[in-house]
Amino acid sequence: VAKDLGLELTALRDRGVRLFDTGRTQFFFLDLHNGHLSMKERVDREEICAAVAKCSLNFEILVKNPM
After folding, report:
1. Rounded distance, CA 53 to CA 35, Å?
2. Predicted confidence (pLDDT) per residue in 48-60, tens digit
3. CB of 62 within 8 A of CB of 15?
4. pLDDT in tens, 10-30
5. Is the pTM of this model over 0.70?
6. Structural contact between residues 55 and 48, judged by C-beta atoms closer than 8 angstroms
7. Which of 7, 25, 31, 56 is least enclosed, having the fewest CB within 10 Å?
């Protein structure tokens, strides 16, 4: 994430970067030590999307200070 935003790792912490999953369950986490976006735990597609052919998990990243 840090690389995609063009920020140094220290800037992630300084800018108060936060990750928000748009659903009720938090699937992702942002590691502020290395800038990587990772899955919080293994995801069961059948449990989340059931019979839906196209399955997506949405999230937002909030950066407090302007870029």
Report:
1. 31
2. 888 788 888 888 9
3. no
4. 888 888 888 888 778 888 999
5. no
6. yes
7. 56
- How many CB atoms within 10 Å of residue 39? 10
Six-digit token pair at 44?
């069961």
61, two tokens: 């990243």
Taking alpha carbons only, the member of 67, 59, 3 closest to residue 35 is 3
Q: Which amino acid, 8?
A: E
